[in-house]
Amino acid sequence: xxIKIYGGPDCRSCQELFERIRVVAEDLGLKADIQKITxxxxxxxxxxxxxxxxxxxxxxxxxxxPTVSDIKVLLTSxxxxxxxx
Length: 85
Known about the structure:
alpha+beta, 3 helices, globular, four-stranded mixed sheet
């Protein structure tokens, strides 16, 4: 699973989302490549930050950031759809 959080380098909400994702993925035992993208060239195309992308699909944009329980649902459903059958 590839997870990208797009946001400004000094954005508190962006950092909080990154930390929540990291903790929830670890708690769920998911093997995930979690990246925080702060490069202006990559974030300039989004109208609001932070942006959460899972396996190339945007799952959330802007504030308020998803709660821990929302993130569990997002990651669990993404892991089910991306696992081989």
